[in-house]
């Protein structure tokens, strides 16, 4: 994916292929949010007016770069996880043994598929925290980009939550379902915090 052009990736997204899909889009929202955080840091570092904030900006710049790369990796992982789910659904089911094996494979694939958007949401929350950290000392000319970074991070969390919920709905393991329900509640709290931060920047 890192070798693709943006246009090429969008063409693939718009095609009839099952992946990339919504989970990859969620991860790319997080990647773009991290990219904007980096941009704000780059446009703040080295300017005398913001010298007292330079240590924070340099630290966040490095962290945002790491989060951006991780988000791209999650976009790739989501496509792989979704492919595994579709492959499980295509397993044979002519006999009772085949039906049992297929059901087990589907449930295992769903758990793994839910894990990727959970990690995406967590990463987006980290990017949001980076945006909060740079807000006080950011170059005033790019404060709107801090806001857009927060909006993109929020979108990543919301989109990730949708994908978690979809996978959870098809699960039969009550323990796994309960765990994901708690995770969805936590993501909801993060989204609410993001919205409050965005309002403060408006």
UniProtKB/TrEMBL annotation:
It comes from Kutzneria kofuensis. One of its GO terms (molecular function) is catalytic activity. Gene3D superfamilies: Formiminotetrahydrofolate cyclodeaminase monomer, up-and-down helical bundle. This is Formiminotetrahydrofolate cyclodeaminase. Pfam families: FTCD_C. Residues 6-185 form the Cyclodeaminase/cyclohydrolase domain. The lineage of its organism: Bacteria, Bacillati, Actinomycetota, Actinomycetes, Pseudonocardiales.
